[in-house]
Every structure is written in C-alpha cells, then in structure tokens.
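Our consortium's second objective concerns turning raw sequence data into structural hypotheses that experimental partners can test. To show how far this objective has progressed, the report includes one record in full. It was chosen at random from the queue rather than selected for favorable results. The single chain below, 238 residues long, was entered without modification.
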Amino acid sequence: MQTVDFSHFPLRAGDVVLDLGCGEGRHVISAYVEQDVHSFGVDLSLDDLKTTRDKFADFHEPHNERKSFGLASANALELPFADDTFDKVICSEVLEHIPDYRGALKEIERVLKPGGLFCASVPRRWPEQICWTLSEDYYRVPGGHLRIFRSRELKQEIEHLGFKHYARHWAHALHAPFWWLKCLFWNSQDSNWLVRQYHKLLVWDLMESPALTRILERLMNPIMGKSVVMYFRKEAAS
C-alpha cells in the first residue's frame, strides 16, 4: 500500500534515498523497484526490519550494480549518517508516533542534501479524530499515535526549517471506513463480520487493483483520504 506518489517525488538514477521509519518496507522497497537508486530503510523495530528483508528478496536485482539496498536499526533523533547524505527522504506515517517529532524533522533536514526532496505523510485530522473518538485503545496501544496533526501547522513547521512546499495530495480513502469499523468494534475486531468483510475488500483491491476501486478512491481521496501527503524541497541556502 504505497502512500508516496513518485510522480510528485521523482527518483533519478544514482539517488541516495532514505525511508525513515520504514516499517515493513513498502516505500524503501518501492524506491528500489522504481529506479536505479541506493535505497536505505531505518526503523527501531528489528521485527519490522526482518520482515522488510524477507519481502525484499522477491525484488532483489543482484546483477544490477547501479542500485543497492540497505536496512538499519536507528533512532530518528540520532541518525547514523553524515550531513547532506541523501538526495531524497521519505517519512510516511511516522511523525505521529514520535514524542519529539520536531527533533526528527531537524535530523531529516540535516541528512538531506540542499535541493533534495522530502516527503512527509501523516493521518488526516478529521478521519483520525473519528478513530480517537470511537476508541481510546486505538491511540493508547504501545507505539500508537501520540497526536493528531493539523496539516497546515505541520507544513509551516517544516517550512521554517528551510524547506519549500511544492505539492500535496490525500491517500487511502478506502481505508478510513475500515479503521472506523475497527475502532467501533475494537474488542471484537478480529471476529467481527463487518470488519472481516471490509478487510477482504481491501485485500482484493490491493492484490487486483480493479478499475472500479481505483477510480472510486481517486474521487474520494480529496474528501476523506486517511492520509495527507506533503512534498518539500530543501532550500539550497538552508
């Protein structure tokens, strides 16, 4: 389930790309597949990194020396990279989990080259607020969401670090009702008929990409997309 739209975030051959908070690998692997880049994923969870490693095996191009892939366990507040290392940085659905998210943004600014691109995505405010209203357990689970962002305020914070905003869109409208159902039936979500049927719909959509659901989501994203996705360029003089 890809959140970043590479038409807004173009990768060039030879780019060094960081996926900060890569989770189970959707964007660090997607970047590797998209272009001849050096793609690195960083996360605190060793289990997620192992899952990413296993998933990557199906996409590895061992004879293509123009691209590479790497994973590391690291703290977003103390990234083990030199200043101006990366051409592109992705941080998708991560900042809402980090207590000191401003510190993470400063680290992103530090490791990104002047003129480099940064993509940040976070849960959209009003769909997220419904989840918080329906279930306290949704955001109180270990590693859960610590805050609900106002996208305009987050955009301004990132711009104050020396970035210029150049694009925005919303994503995953079909997933918003699924999470509302999960929150509504939190204690029985694994066995609830509605939750299970909606999950089957999402899996079918993910695996088959039928035109009907693709068009429906594209129409619904501006209205109820679960994620807001913002794109920035680091100013050369920052």
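The partners drew two points from this record. Residues 143 and 190 are 20 Å apart (CA to CA). Strands lie at 16-20, 38-43, 68-73, 86-92, 112-123, 163-171, 227-234. Both points have been shared with the crystallography group to help prioritize constructs.
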